[in-house]
Write a structure and sequence with these properties.
This is Stress-response A/B barrel domain-containing protein. By secondary structure, this protein is α+β, with helices and mostly antiparallel strands. It contains 6 helices and 4 strands; from the N terminus they run ααβαββααβα. The protein is globular, with a radius of gyration of 20 Å.
Length: 141
């Protein structure tokens, strides 16, 4: 479908634009990298101070940095929302990228994951929201 749209559109463009569309077409046909993304969102307890929240971000960052030594644990990010509108009270977020579903499955029972989870639960109001996506499945949709 995308290939056909690029080809049809290319008839109306200059040679330079056609080259750009060709590059786009080749890029779309590349095999997607395999990865699983884990997202966690939490609400801070109401009595927490700004300093305590800052310490929580810093501590989780340091804990996750240590996780980079775990096979299949590729990357992570931690932080507050840029804009609180639409967050429904979630002020803490993290994302972890794993090489594949096997790496993700191995991480869940790992002592490191349990440590990070327990720490996040210690400052959370209610149960944090966890959400995972398999980016290879997303690419196939």
């Amino acid at each position: 479908m995308v290939f056909r749209m690029c080809r049809t559109a290319s008839a109306r463009y200059t040679r330079m634009q056609f080259l750009s569309l060709s590059i786009c077409q080749r890029t779309l046909s590349l095999r997607p990298s395999m990865a699983v993304q884990l997202f966690t969102f939490a609400k801070f307890r109401p009595e927490m101070t700004v300093q305590e929240k800052s310490d929580a971000y810093r501590t989780v960052y340091l804990l996750l940095a240590a996780g980079l030594a775990i096979p299949g644990f590729k990357n992570f990010k931690v932080g507050p929302p840029l804009d609180k509108r639409g967050t429904r009270g979630y002020e803490f977020a993290l994302t972890v990228e794993f090489e594949d579903m096997n790496a993700y499955s191995n991480y869940i029972p790992h002592a490191h994951h349990i440590l990070v989870s327990e720490f996040i639960n210690s400052f959370s109001e209610g149960t944090p929201l966890a959400y995972q996506i398999d980016t290879t499945r997303v690419m196939k949709l």
